[in-house]
Amino acid sequence: MMPVALSIKDLGVSFSGFKAVDGVSTEIMEGELRVLLGANGAGKTTLMDLISGKTASSQGRVSLYDVEITNWDEHAIARAGIGRKFQIPTVFRDLSVRENLLVASCQKRGVFANMGFRFGDEEQARVDETLLMINLSDKADCQAAVLSHGQTQWLELGLLIVQNPKILLLDEPTAGMTQTETQRTAEIINRLKGKHTILVVEHDMAFIREIAEIITVMHMGRVLAEGSIAMIEQDQKVKDAYLGTQRIH
Which end of the chain is more exposed for a tag (fewer CB within 10 A), N or C? Predict the structure, then answer.
């Protein structure tokens, strides 16, 4: 049995008396791909903020492989092995795609550690592998500024992959993408299955069907239901609160 990669116990936060996340508990196993589903305001992104340290929780705890990381500084959580991709991509626009990935792959910290640093065969191989995975091998020497929106999203995902985090947090990775780009993003994420533990916030039902293993449905800051696509589609509470007569298709 795979170990628990991410454990969330009774996690919550309030803003001016409003409980944005209200006692959420779940466990994500190593290598699992979990989708967070819910209407706007359900608490999905806030939950990601709590896990990544962007927002401090007012109750509960978060553990990464049995190490409690609740309310650690954001950079400390990142170094512990949780990498996050936001809706709006941030890349080094003046560098080439390959240079972006090489910089991200550097494990040394600080200015002095990086002075005179030379990228070795291991870093180059990791970058080449990542370029293939994110469909950007043919754009390796292009400046990041000329990439399409979808390609920029893939590059930012690549920046996380080369750092080899234990857990990837992906916040609406298909936002603003064309249908073709969305399909290619599903292919990329499916290639990552098993190699990384992945938590995805998404609302695109077709995309969810392409990637989902287990779905956690949130409603008003709480976990409403959890299970496979088939289980979620048949759950009356989910139908009443979110899906209605719609299927995940």
Answer: N
Amino acid identity for residue 64 in this structure: L
- 94: tokens are 């003046």
Q: Is residue 18 part of a domain?
A: yes
Cα separation, 49 vs 167, in Å, equals 14
- 231 lies in some domain: yes
Contact 58, 11 (CB under 8 A): no
- Parent domain of 249: 1-81+170-176+201-249
**CA 186, 189, 194, 199 torsion-angle sign:** negative
Instruction: Tell me how many domains the chain contains.
Output: 1
Euclidean distance between CA atoms 9 and 62, whole angstroms? 7
In-domain check, residue 206: yes
In sign, the C-alpha dihedral spanning 22, 232, 82, 101 is negative
Indicate which CATH number applies to the domain containing 26: 3.40.50.300
Neighbouring residues of 4: CB distance < 8 A, sequence distance ≥ 6: 27, 28, 29, 30, 65, 66
Cα 133–Cα 139–Cα 141 angle in degrees, nearest 5: 120
Tell me if 30 sits within 8 A of 168, measured CB to CB: no
Which residues share a beta bridge with 143?
96
Residue 69 pLDDT > 70, yes or no? Answer: yes
**pLDDT tens digits along 9-68:** 999 999 988 999 999 999 999 999 999 999 888 999 999 999 999 999 999 999 999 999
